[in-house]
Design goal:
Radius of gyration: 19 Å
Structural class: alpha+beta
Shape: elongated
Order of helices and strands: HHEEEHHHEEEEHEEEE
Largest sheet: 7 strands, antiparallel
Low-confidence stretches: 13-24
Distance between the termini: 14 Å
Length: 227
């Protein structure tokens, strides 16, 4: 399976709750930059901030014209017009349309094609002409290298060690892909996401730091046949 596609699948399986991502605590957020610029364009815009990321979680009252662009490009153009507010360097490279949901304007956050766990944005429009609202949970452009130092064998061995099983790892069904995970206080990590299915049908996803080889976290996930 294509590693990027696998990464998207892994991202969709895990960490959609703050408890799962180990980011259940709120941060003290400074007043967002770029808010005046947004309201100058859209006087009736209402912004709700995400206290876990200090980014906009929801914006309503938008009237952003899509114009001659595609709807997809119009959504990204809205972020691009408000880069300071979203804290995204280049939305055209950092958000990819999730084709698994063709009826939704849902975008997965990526960095150099590496999926960002729990990073997504969704738009609502009036036809193909006007963007009316936005919602999402995403992160400022991560300042991190997407080149792993730890190889897949070392990451797999660490995951097997943390699995704490007497089973031979060669008998376990597993796969892995790169992902970016944000820990406490929003610190980004490049991680190997190692998915393991044990003989007892338990299914776990382990995150192993792709730069240091350290164990980051694990979470039980749905059985493979239900995905």
């Amino acid at each position: 399976m294509n590693r990027f596609l696998l990464g998207i699948i892994v991202v969709s399986l895990v960490f959609l709750s703050c408890t799962a991502t180990n980011r259940s605590h709120k941060m003290a957020c400074a007043p967002p930059a770029g808010l005046d610029n947004l309201r100058a364009q859209h006087p009736y815009a209402r912004v709700v901030m995400d206290t876990l990321t200090c980014n906009p979680e929801r914006i309503t009252g938008i009237g952003f014209p899509i114009g001659a662009r595609s709807v997809e490009d119009g959504c990204l153009a809205f972020i691009d017009r408000n880069r300071a507010l979203f804290r995204i360097r280049n939305p055209y490279l950092e958000f990819i349309r999730d084709k698994r949901y063709p009826d939704e304007l849902l975008f997965q956050q990526v960095l150099d094609t590496v999926p960002v766990i729990d990073g997504y944005v969704r738009f609502h429009t009036v036809g193909d002409s006007l963007i009316t609202s936005f919602e999402g949970h995403y992160f400022p452009t991560p300042s991190i290298s997407t080149q792993p130092i730890v190889d897949t064998l070392e990451a797999r061995e660490m995951a097997a060690y943390m699995y704490e099983s007497d089973e031979n790892m060669d008998t376990l069904k597993s796969d892995m892909s790169l992902a970016i995970w944000h820990g406490r206080h929003g610190r980004p990590y490049l991680a190997w996401a190692v998915r393991i299915e044990g003989l007892d049908q338990e299914n776990w996803l382990y995150l192993i730091d792709a730069h240091t080889g350290a164990y980051l976290m694990r979470r039980e996930i749905e059985p493979w046949h239900k995905q």
